[in-house]
Amino acid sequence: MIAEHRYNDRLSPRAAWSIIVLVGLAVLMSMFVIARYRGFWGEGDTSGIIRTNRAVVDGATLIPAGADLAYPNGYAYQAVVTFLVGATGMSLATLTMYGSALLMVWTIVPAWLLFRELTGTVRGAVLGTALLYIQPEYLFPIMRGTHEKFTRGLMLLGLYLLFRSLRSRDDPVRFGALVVAFYMCVYAIFSFNNLLATSYVAGLICTLVIAIIITRITGTPLLMIGPALRRLGYAALISMIFAYILTFHAYRPAIHDVRVIQQVQERIAIVFFGAPSPEKDAPPAQITNPYVAINTGWLSPTVYLTVSLANWLLLASSGLIWATQGILWLLRRRKPFSENEILLWALYGAFGLQGAASIIVDLSGSLAANLQHRMFPSFVMIAAPVTARWMASWTLQNRVVRWAAPVLVGTLVAVLSVLSLFKATNEPLLSNKWVYYQPGEATAITWAETALRGRSLWVAYDERVNTGEQIRRGATPREIKFDQFDVDEGTRDFMISEVTREQAIRYGVPLPVEADSMITYDNGQAQIYHSRPRSPFQR
After folding, report:
1. How many CB atoms neighbour CB 439 within 10 A?
2. Out of 82-96, 354-368, 408-422, which region has the weakest mean confidence (pLDDT)?
3. What is the C-alpha end-to-end distance of the chain, expressed in Å?
4. For residue range 335-349, what is the model confidence (pLDDT) as tens digits?
5. Which 3 state secondary structure label does DSSP give 484?
6. pLDDT tens digits for 396-449?
């Protein structure tokens, strides 16, 4: 094992350069995302939140008029976006299209600080940060136009402040400042997203329980771990008070999250325990298969496994390290070396349990059956330093490996980062779930708003055009109704573009227009067709 806290609190030139390099690499990854689609992309959650942001910016209020406009999980992201729009002079659409990916760069610093604290070395901090930022399931949420780039960064910062305060107990002034900063950080997490913050606090509580159990079993002296356990207990208790304040007093729309949790519990009880459904004439509850998207969302399962390779490697390596460490403690009665070692092990177990619980929730069909995608980033934030700690120790102890490791690790990180970017951006060459659309499609819609005002226009087999236009226009009102997926009865106008034709070939489905439909608009990239009248009452 490596020695604890081998670094100096003052930032050395080597440490500073490592942060600069990591930030530079994060900027390059963000620029790739921007350049790949040049702002013409659409995504459901971003489309939804930009609608709320538009209402907040225009109305200068955190709770816009209309229950469907207020974001139920928190208010901080809307406040930050409103500030950035006012401070930079950029439009809401420009900030979302081009700034979303770049804003994630700030999270590099709290990740590096936390991982240095957990691994005890600058080498471990660099390795851990690199491992975290090649995880596609982590990159996807922090690069889109939602709160998660701030929520995840604050989670990392909060853990750093918590661990750093444990090492500052002999300095009352610094300790007090770190404690206050930690609680401010926790409240900020709640204000960005109440549900993620609740899972964060639940992870701290579970960490405390696991740490107590492992301490008792291994006979670890309370003098070493006792103060840390008390500090963790206070942190969890006060954080729960913050949850109550925000949910029931500071931001009343957050009461929605209580109902969400109740609905999840009811759904699990119905599916797995045969509880009666509260809805009359409800169909029999069945277990949902959340993994069917693997077959439909990508060209093949092999492609999916390839672009997810970073996830599997981190999951396997960290799990093996964690299990081996636990076996040494539990079966061979080997005592942990430090409180950090115990707490990191307990954190991994806590967020691993949350990941297991998310599988059950997804099988029940709750929360759109994608809770695993939302919980996995929290898990990899802990799995990365577990693996990095071992890698830093191993490379330090072997002379040959010490020389070869930088080249091998650098090559592996470069390859995995490319694969992970392909997955995080739903690369259309590999994915069936496209998120981009063409400038010609946007131009065709602009024409349709004048020529087809008030009518319904079929635009795509999925939501890519609808959400993309919502983002590009900054959620300003449209003059036409978008029809997507299956054609609605009464829709007689259809936009067919190069992308739509390619999707039809990829999906193996026919285009929705009839052979004798009339072309009413054509700009080279997209055409708009109108179905011929079949009766005297049609136009």
Report:
1. 14
2. 354-368
3. 78
4. 777 788 889 999 999
5. strand
6. 555 666 677 777 888 888 999 999 999 999 999 999 989 999 999 999 999 999
Name, in order, each residue with C-beta under 8 angstroms of 385's C-beta and a sequence gap of 6 or more.
114, 115, 118, 119, 124, 128, 344
Distance (Å, whole) CA 372 – CA 117: 28
Structure token digits, residue 310: 């970073």
- The number of CA neighbours under 13 Å toward the Cβ of 289 is 6
Distances in Å between the Cα of 475 and the Cα atoms of 54, 150, 292 are 6, 22, 32
CA pair distance 373, 371, nearest whole angstrom: 5
Write down how long the chain is.
Answer: 539
**List of residues 6+ apart from 100 with CB closer than 8 A:** 46, 143, 144, 145, 149
Tens of pLDDT, residues 522-533: 999 999 999 988
**C-beta of residue 426 within 8 angstroms of C-beta of residue 36:** no
**Count of CB atoms situated within 10 Å of the CB of 24:** 12
58-74 burial string, b = 16+ CB within 10 Å, else e? eeeebbbeeeebbbbbb
List CB contacts of 460: < 8 A, sequence separation 6 or more: 437, 466, 484, 495, 499, 500, 503
Structure confidence at residue 290 (pLDDT): 78
Type of residue at 334: R
pTM (2 decimals)? 0.92
What is the amino acid identity at position 135?
Q
Sheet strand arrangement including 526-530: 481-484, 456-460, 493-497, 526-530, 518-522
> Cα(423)–Cα(413) distance, rounded to whole angstroms?
15
| Nearest partner of 125 among 83, 163, 94, judged by Cα | 163
Q: Which residues contact 231 (CB under 8 A, 6 or more apart)?
A: 162, 165, 166
